[in-house]
Write a structure and sequence with these properties.
By secondary structure, this protein is α+β, with helices and mostly antiparallel strands. The chain has helices at residues 13-21, 127-153; strands at 2-6, 25-30, 39-44, 49-64, 70-83, 90-96, 100-104, 107-108. A hairpin with a 3-residue loop joins β6 (90-96) and β7 (100-104).
Length: 154
């Protein structure tokens, strides 16, 4: 069962969209609706050091870097302290118990000037490309099927 928790001031459409845009949400995966633990806060400390606080201890809280490498692990705790290392571009936090897991949004290294990755990309409607693409969805599989049939029959 997947649940998405959102930190919004109100339940209006604008507040919800603003919270999602600001990435003030996290995901809980659980076997049932009986999970009772929550993410409380992520606080920037001195330098590249951070403190995460949960509402109750988890069996394990992991800090995962690029290529799925576990950078830090704490067990049976509701607090996690970790530091961004110079080679870390981003870190993801996962808190795990037997019946639930919390997945936080990635923390991305940002120097305050250069926008990381391509976060400014916006979806744009391209009507001409769409109408050129749509027939291809049907024509390409048809041509592949005909080519395969000729190969089989010969």
């Amino acid at each position: 069962m997947k649940n998405d928790f959102l930190f919004a001031d109100t339940s209006t459409d604008d507040a919800i969209m603003e919270a999602y845009t600001a990435r003030r949400n996290y995901v809980v995966l659980s076997e049932d609706d009986s999970f009772g633990k929550q993410f409380i806060s992520c606080e920037a400390m001195r330098g590249d050091r951070y403190r995460l606080i949960f509402s109750a201890p988890f069996d394990g809280i992991l800090v995962i870097g690029e290529r799925g490498i576990v950078k830090a692990l704490v067990t049976h705790s509701d607090i996690m302290l970790f530091t961004f290392q110079p080679d870390d571009a981003y870190l993801r936090i996962v808190a795990k118990d037997d019946n639930m897991q919390i997945y936080l949004n990635s923390l991305v290294r940002y120097n305050g000037i250069d926008i990381p990755l391509k976060v400014n990309l916006k979806a744009e409607k391209n009507t001409q490309f769409s109408w050129l693409f749509r027939p291809g969805v049907f024509v390409v599989p048809l041509l592949l099927a005909l080519a395969e049939r000729k190969l089989i029959i010969q």
